[in-house]
Amino acid sequence: MQTANVLLKKIVRSSVLPFAARHGMKKDLFPLSRNLSLSFCLKQDNSCNPSEKLDLDAWKKVMRSGVQDEVSETVSERKELSTSAAAREVLEMWRLAGRSVPENISEEQLKTFMECPSKSAKKKYLKYLHLKELHKKNDKRKMDEKRQRRLETEERASETDETKRNSFIRLWANCMDRTYGWRAAQSMIFGQPLVFDMSYEKDMSVREVANTVRQIVLSEGCNRRSVDPFHIHFCNFKGDSLYHKEFIKHYREAWGKLLITVTDQCYTDVFPKDKLIYLTADSPKVMKTFDHDKIYIVGSMVDRSIKTGVSLARAKRLGLETAALPLEKYLLWNSGAKNLTLDQMMHILLSLKDTGDWKTALEFVPKRKYCGFVSKPVHELKKTLNLINMLKLGKRQEEVRKQFAKNYSKKLTQK
Fold first, then answer.
1. pLDDT band at 267, cuts 50/70/90?
2. Residues 6+ apart with CB under 8 A from 207
């Protein structure tokens, strides 16, 4: 009996309900409510409650909501996958069509490409990536070619007599390095001291500190190769400063082997004050001759923003004598500030120390800053310039007076 009821239930579900749904007869079959009552035979089953009824509307809503959530999730995932895949297909089609498309594109770049608002923007972005990729390939190719040429040159040199020549050059360089080192060691005992004031880190930016250290490295090399080098002192030098970090970048392991004196003390604590002369372009006193018994101080500063008076103020606070190079006395200055780089100052001081000739020493001043050397005394040139200015001013005053008289006469005639 029970199996018959089950069969009857299946037949009703498979035949009557679909037929009624197709012909719009659901409301006629179930006029009051869409509740299916169990048969009398099923009511006698102990597993079921006689009063239970199945609510088809609620069941349908639950099933539809679950299906819609699953469908929306799968659609969103497929949409994301389809958009990225479609974008890659578009890129491949454009590449085959001969457009500027990069060969390799990352996920971030693909996302940026998909977010471009227009087609022209997408083309421009792809062209940018394509050019960037070409530049990287060209740089890599050039590096490989350079490495290959170097290897070929070394191979050819090993087969010819260039090996002997290179060995002689290396031997000569080693001998000269030993000679320069010996001179620098001698200068640490008998040489004239030259002080670099390393207390201007707070007055400069990181880039200016790097430029300062680069100039000091050039100065140290120039001094080491000279005939009579200075004994270089780095005063007010802190171990954890930017100066120290930049010196380590340049010298690396050779920093601890330099034949110079590095101290965190001030130069006034190391040398007597009466022998110190601070060289600064802002000093009112002009340096006439080079004194071999004095100790000159150079401020380790690159002032791109032209910080006038900083080194002069520091020298005055310490009660030191100051001096400036006689640039106007010997040079017809053209334009720009009268500030020189540290390596130029080193060249000038070494030349003065060896020759004592200002004309020879000031040849290290850049040619763009002056027109030539002074042929006449400076006071005569100043007199000539003042006379020219007076003549110009007198002529101008006469022109102004005539113009005023002319305008005044016109006003009188109009009245």
1. very high
2. none
Rg of the chain over Cα atoms, rounded to whole angstroms, equals: 46
Cα 393–chain centre separation: 51
Q: Which two tokens stand for residue 63?
A: 């099933």
- Asked if 201 and 241 count as a contact pair (C-beta separation under 8 A), the reply is yes
User: 202: buried, middle or exposed (CB in 10 Å: 19+, 13-18, 0-12)?
Assistant: exposed
What b-and-e string marks burial along 9-43, b requiring 16 or more CB atoms within 10 Å of the CB?
A: eeeeeeeebeeeeeeeeeeeeeeeebeeebeeebe
**What is the tally of helices (H) and strands (E) in the chain?**
16, 10
Amino acid at 110: L
The pLDDT of 28-54, averaged and rounded, is 45
Helix or strand run (H / E) with residue 371: strand 370-373
Contacts of 48 (CB under 8 A, 6+ apart): 38, 42
Q: Residue 134: which of 104, 109, 93 has the closest Cα?
A: 104
Residue 25 DSSP SS3: coil
User: H-type helices in 97-205, by residue range?
Assistant: 107-114, 119-159, 162-190
3-state percent helix, strand, coil for the chain, nearest multiple of 5? 65, 10, 25
Q: How high does pLDDT run on average in the chain?
A: 76
Model confidence at 289: pLDDT above 70: yes
Residue 66 in tokens = 């679950």
Six token digits for residue 44: 């006698």
Grouping H, G, I as helix, E, B as strand and the rest as coil, residue 340 is coil
With contact defined as beta carbons under 8 Å apart, do 286 and 324 qualify? Answer: yes
Q: Which long-range contacts (CB under 8 A, 24 or more apart) does 25-31 make?
A: none
| Lookup: tokens for 288 | 């006439």
Kindly write down the DSSP assignment for every residue of 214-260, as one continuous string.
HHHHHHHHHHHTSSS--EEEEES--TTSHHHHHHHHHHGGGGGG-SS
